[in-house]
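Handout, page 2. Input:
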Amino acid sequence: MIQTIFTDIAHYIYLFRQTDILMMAVCLCLLFNIIRKSFRKKSRMTAGSISGIYSTETRVMLACYMIVIVQLTLICRESGTRDAISLTFFGTYYPSVRAVAYMLENLLLFIPYGILLPNAFKACKKPWVTLLIGFLSSLAIEVTQLITKRGYFQVDDIWLNTLGALVGWFIYFLSVKIGALTFVSGTIFIVLLLMIFSFSAQEGAESSSLSDIFAKFFAGVYNHLSGKNIDYELFVFPVRKGAHMTEYAALFADTYVLIYSIAGRCIAWLAFVIAALAASLDEFHQLYVPGRTGQLRDVLIDLLGAFISFLIILLIKHIRKKHRPGSAG
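Output:
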């Protein structure tokens, strides 16, 4: 189930245009800026700080995410290819992994929407307002799909999107109660582990197919920018190993932040030990997956990603210290 969802996400990323990638990059930069401000304050993010200092950032992130939603549900689809209507609840459900995955993806699509809305606008801190906006947004998408024949008008899509927005609001509410930095970093930690072990659970042929998707994407970008025509297979190995490094660089950085939010101080060695443990268990797990092997080389590549992440953190801390008011020079 989780593998199917992550594979679909990878396929959607492959369909992204350059503007979509730019939007996602802007969102990541703004999220990093929010975390940076939280470190500067040396305190957890609270409801007041989110609704005040971070409202501008979250509004831009919300706008970017809305563009991504429009791209996924409308623009990337060919007009006139779908015109069916389903007004039956659970009309799209049937007992298969694919059907359940589609339903979960509809719910997941609007969870970030429900998180960003109350962070961006004070009125949306009321759950019924977020719920209503989620419903109207989903209804608008379904009606547009029906008119342009870019998608099926399905009641299931509407109530799942609306439920996703409500789940997002409850995530926002919970983050206010326990501290957003702890909650966000903890959630990202769980998602990263699920993603890592989900990918390692894929059989050899399925894993290669997923790598090919990203290899073709990067080969297409490179060929477009360079004017060359290099075969995508040359990108497969660096994509696979680069994915290893990226996963564990992200895991180390997030674990570093999570430990800081809980303990109130940075404990780099503990974050490194957790990353090493996850990498070792991941490779051990692959020994029992058909078509996969567990390799010490991959563990070292994973830890190299974590180490590079640590060096970046040290560089950021050095730059902050250098530009801190009252510092020498």
